[in-house]
Structure formats: C-alpha cells, structure tokens
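COURSE: Structural Biology Practicum
ASSIGNMENT: Worksheet 4, Part C
STUDENT ID: 0417
INSTRUCTIONS: Below are two proteins. For each, the amino acid sequence is given first, followed by its structure token string. Answer the questions at the end about the second protein only.

PROTEIN I
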Amino acid sequence: MAETTSLAAPLAQSEPLAARPAPAPIPALRSGGRARRWGGLTGAGLPVALLLLWEVLARAGVLKANLLPAPSKVLATIGELARTGELWGHLGITLARVGAGFVLGAALATVLGAATGYSRRLFQLLDPLLQGVRNIPSLAWVPLFILWMGIYETSKVVLIAVGVFFPVYLNLMNGVQGVDRKLVEVGRVYRLSGGALVRRVFLPATLPAYFVGLRSGLGLGWMFVVAAEIMGASKGLGFLLVDGQMTGRPQTILASILLFAVLGQLTDAALAALGRRLLRWQDTHGQVNNG
C-alpha cells in the first residue's frame, strides 16, 4: 500500500504540468494573394525603370534613333500592327508553333525521362546517345530539317520540339533517379503494385523537378521558334524580326523582341501557376514566400 502511494505521488505532482495552458501558437506567415501581388509589383519595378531611362536617353539624343529608338516608338509600332490586324496573324502562328512543339517535345521527354530514370538498363542504353545529341547547336539542325521535311510547318514544329525535349528529359530523369530509396522500399513493404508505386511514391517525389524541366523547356521553345521561323516562314514574330532587319526598321525588330519577352513571360507564369496548384501540398520555404 505504501508503494502504491509513493508511485502515485509523482503522478499527482505531474498533473499540474499537464493542466498548464498550452503556449500560444506561432502566427502563420501571410503568404496569400497580397504577397503575390506585392511580389509582382516589385518584379515589374526594374523593367519599368529601365524603360523610363531608355526613353529619357533616346529623347535626349544620347541613343541614336536609327539604332535604338525610344520605347514610345516601339509601342507605337506594336499599336499600328495591331490596328491593321497584321500583329494577330504573327502572334497566332507563333503561339501555335510553340504550343505544338512544346506538347510534342514534352510528351516524348516525359516517356524517355521516366523510362531511363526508372530502368538502369535503359539509362545505360539510351542516355549516352541522347547526351551526345543534346550538345548539337540548334542552328545545326536547320539545314537538315529543311532537307528532310522542307520549309513547311513540320520542320518548324520538330525544331522547337528538339529544344523543349532536353530540359524536360534531364530534369525528369534526375528526379526519378533521386527518389529516396527508403520510400520505394516502404511502398513495396505495403505491397504497392507497379502503377500504385508510381502514383503514390514516384509521382509526388518527381513533380517538382518535372515542372522545373517543363518551364526550362518552354523557355527554350521560345528561343528555338526564332530559328524555326527563319526557315522560310512568311508569318510569325521571328519573320517580323527578320523583316525589320532586312528593311532597316529597328523599331520593328525591338517590337518583335518585346513581344517575345511578354509572351514568354505570360506562358511561363501560367505554367508556374499550374505547378503551384499541383504542388500546394508541399511545405517548403519557397511555398511560404511565394504563396
């Protein structure tokens, strides 16, 4: 009986500790729409400041109008192209080419990246060849694709797909190979089948790297479309750029470059937003800061 009393005493003494109020929770960091809007305004500050400086220097005569016209003249050129309707044809065909090349290149890269990342035998068989092809300059493909497919849309789309392919392939392959082996073993302990293992273990673990690859591939797709539209195109922003060079209109060249930058940024932002939505389950430093 004395032993029971002596054992109960410490328990009785510990009860007030349990009864103490819990410490106040740490307030959650505000990272919602306000943070995203503030980040967007901050990111727009530097380009706007550079454009204003450019405008001032051009109006002051520091920059020659025949080499670097003022941004107001570049915007006026875009407005005139939009008013006549010429701009929309160029934008539409360029977007269609980049979209088709992106889908084709990303789809093929997804299949080969997942296969070589998962299977060591396929990696040893295919990766050396693909790494060799990756180092071929983009312009080196142009005469070969013209010879094979002519100057029609197929050669342009395939060239863009080549540019998109390698960033997606590399990031996905490295993402699959970098999946923690312990997670795979736990999945097998729980008797997950091949499809379930991919869906429950590999897919969540590789999605971040995959989206990095998609965004990098999309950026290269916008770079490759210029080379593609040099291949005998009669429409497109790349054609507009070359036409401005041939006719000595620097404002047209700069208008094309500005439109490439805006379209590239908008499409990348859309892909990044999709990635944030699919990866909202992540609890990372970047998620907190970006919202």
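PROTEIN II
(use this one for the questions)
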Amino acid sequence: MKLSTKWTSVGLSALTLTLFASSTQAHAAERIYWANPSDSYSSHGRGAFSTKGDLLRAYDDAKDGESACVTIYGKMVSSNKYEYRAVCAAGKGNSKDRNLNLVEGTSMKIRGWMLDESSSYDHNYGPWVSGMA
C-alpha cells in the first residue's frame, strides 16, 4: 500500500509539473505587442506583433492617402542575426500581414510609422516597443 501511495505522489507531481510547463508555454505564445505612429498620426494606424506564429501586422485606420506601417527589429532564424522587417497597409480598414520566423526567447522591438506612397516619404515614427520573441 505504501508503494502505491508513493507512486501516486510521484505521478501527481509529474502531472502538475507538466501542466505548469504547458501553461507557461501557452502564455508566452499568446503575447501581442502594439505600436502606433507618433503625434497627430497616432490614431491613423497601428502595428502589432504576435509571438504566436511570429505575425507582424499593420492596420490602416484612416482614409488619408497614406499607409500605416510597422517595423520590427528581431533575430531571424534564417540568418541567426538581428534584422529589420516592415509591412505597410494602405487604405482605411485594411490590414496587411507578414509572417516571420524569429528565434524564440530573444529580444525584439517594434514601432509604428506612416508612409506617403505617392512621394515615398516616411514619417511620424512612433517610439520603439520592446519585448521577447
């Protein structure tokens, strides 16, 4: 009887540890970071990076003839180096995605900005938002 009690205790401890590890991994996989352009353009668009799938997305929230963009600086799996990547969405209500593959557990940062596509003028860079991939 004592042997089965010990086995049950060990089994429950292992199950608890497994569930804890799974819940911490699931939590890390759901992290979303947001960034906006600066100043008067802060409501014209936004950018997001989701650690679930390493998805970079730009949202254009204003019909102003400009694109809302987001840039990420992170360590890419393909090169094992830190690199910049960007995506822009043009037209109110539109969004555009870019799938990336960042090295997990490394630092990254994103920031929103605006692009006047007719003149290729990029402006109103927002502050960097830091996080972990």
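ANSWER KEY EXCERPT:
Q1: The longest helix spans residues 2-29.
Q2: The radius of gyration is 21 Å.
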